[in-house]
Amino acid sequence: MAWEKGFFSYCTGSRSAMLRQKQNGLEGRMRMMTPAMRLAVSLTVVSLVTVILWYFRWAGAGPLHPVFFYLLPVALLAMFVGRLPALLCASLAAVCSAYFLYDPVYSFQVTNRLEVGDLVCFAVLALIGIHCTGEILRPPAKVPAFKAPNRKP
Predict the structure, then answer these.
(1) Could you say which of 51, 100, 139, 150 is the most buried, measured as most Cβ atoms within 10 Å of its Cβ?
(2) What is the spatial distance between Cα 124 and Cα 122, in angstroms, rounded to a whole number?
(3) Close Cβ partners of 100 (under 8 Å, ≥ 6 residues apart)
(4) Please, what is the average pLDDT of the chain?
(5) Which of 143, 126, 144 is nearest to 134 (CA)?
(6) What's the CA gap between 40 and 19, in Å, rounded?
(7) Where are the domains of the chain?
(8) Rounded CA gap, 148 and 32, in Å?
(9) What is residue 124's DSSP assignment?
């Protein structure tokens, strides 16, 4: 029976997987993210920020330039998840803000030129922010030691 082997033994997988989990520790397993998980995290972040901004717009207390509220989540995604999910988040943020947050709502047509400029400025700022965040977090390259030439006085 399942009670003889342990109550949760059927949920944990194979014996070799359990041994690897005990050897690596739980933190090693939690740090590893598959590309599907990175994609899911980026879609979740965009959806969450879009819902919050859409609610404030619907309530009448929405910000004047809502697309710029996506910059912080994009930078955090670049730091913790990677550049590619952050780029995906930035592009989806521009699309979602054009569709849900700018007039006419539920249309990709943005009638005001200022709002089109906001979207373009957001895209450029997000790309710069993702690139800079990635460069700051990149491990330093090993530079060969400098050898001074031998000088005779």
Answers:
(1) 100
(2) 5
(3) 50, 53, 54, 57, 106
(4) 80
(5) 126
(6) 28
(7) 1-32, 33-137
(8) 44
(9) H
Distance CA 137, CA 147 (A): 29
The pLDDT of 120-147, averaged and rounded, is: 87
For the chain, how big is the Rg over CA atoms in Å? 24
Measure the CA–CA gap between 124 and 15, rounded to whole angstroms: 50
Short-list 31, 149, 135, CA closest to 86: 135
Residue with tokens 């780029």: 87
Confidence of residue 147 (pLDDT cuts 50, 70, 90): confident
CB atoms under 10 Å from CB of 133, counted, come to 18
Residue pair 133/79 in contact (Cβ under 8 Å)? The answer is: yes
Separation between Cα atoms, residue 138 and residue 10, nearest integer Å = 41
In tens, the pLDDT along 28-62 reads 444 567 888 999 999 999 999 999 999 998 888 87
pLDDT at 24 over 60: no
pLDDT for the residue 3: 45
> 108 near 98, Cβ under 8 Å?
yes
Give the largest CA-CA distance in the chain: 87
Q: Is residue 128 pLDDT above 90, yes or no?
A: yes
